[in-house]
Write a structure and sequence with these properties.
It contains eleven helices and six strands.
Length: about 270
């Protein structure tokens, strides 16, 4: 029986395979690829477990996490050697994303100086133009409620609008007075024609009627801040955000430009 076992092809295969594996493990230590599970990676595995389970892992659970990570790394390294990763667009895209995330994080941690922000603002002035703002009062007239709307408007103009503008005219859902409101906000409330008309209205006297999406209005502009280029104080948060975004884009472009020099890139 023992003799028959020794003649089995499977046994021969296992013996030869074992000897070959032993030979390679002894004689190929210098070229053996390295797989390292760092302390940082162990902390990351522990944190992920704690976040999911709401507790720290036991020693047995942590060892299982580490063993699973070893298997994942070994499988990936072996897959690279087998050429499985070469044409896998999903894996390629994921690696690309991780590299770009690292670049973005490194740039995002840089704090630009006041001079950096001021220089960036001056180079991109068109992006930081402040729209005009208005402070105004108005009296609303609903044309459908008056047989002779022109006469009604004339009567309103002869009254003391400064003191009684809140109670004169017809009722509507909008406020009778607005402070420091932009043209974009005015357009949303009253319509674009109304907002555009305010650009041509002089200050501190009642004028109109001005048309809106609701009807007619008598308007008095008390204060206007014209359209102007922003100062850094006015838009510092936006400039700081845009500065970092541009810096990240430039860093990624520079990274790929440097990589292209190290490779022979051919597009068939």
């Amino acid at each position: 029986m023992f003799k028959r076992i020794l003649q089995e092809p499977l046994l021969h295969f296992l013996v030869v395979g074992s000897l070959l594996f032993f030979y390679l493990s002894v004689n190929d230590t210098e070229t053996k690829p390295q797989v390292t599970i760092s302390q940082g990676k162990i902390k990351q595995l522990t944190a992920q477990f704690s976040k999911t389970r709401q507790r720290t892992p036991s020693k047995k659970e942590l060892n299982a996490l580490i063993e699973n990570q070893i298997r994942e790394d070994l499988a990936f390294e072996h897959g690279v050697q087998m050429g499985l990763v070469e044409n896998d667009s999903i894996i390629k895209r994921r690696v690309q994303q991780k590299i770009e995330f690292m670049l973005n994080d490194s740039i995002g941690s840089i704090e630009p100086s006041h001079e950096d922000l001021q220089t960036y603002l001056e180079a991109h002035k068109e992006q930081y133009t402040i729209a005009p703002t208005y402070s105004f009062k108005h009296v609303y007239i609903n044309p459908e409620k008056h047989e002779d709307v022109d006469t009604f408007i004339s009567e309103l103009k002869n009254k003391s609008l400064d003191a009684n503008y809140k109670v004169l005219g017809d009722s509507m859902m909008l406020e009778s007075e607005y402070r420091n409101i932009t043209t974009a906000q005015i357009a949303r409330l009253f319509g674009r024609k109304f907002a555009k008309y305010l650009d041509a209205v002089s200050l501190e006297r009642w004028q109109g009627p001005v048309k809106s999406g609701y009807g007619l209005h008598l308007v008095q502009i008390e204060h206007k801040i014209p359209k102007h280029l922003a100062t850094l104080k006015e838009v510092e948060i936006a400039v700081r955000r845009d500065f970092r975004t541009d810096a990240q884009k430039k860093a990624i472009s520079a990274f790929y430009d440097e990589l292209k020099v190290q490779y022979n890139v051919e597009v068939e």
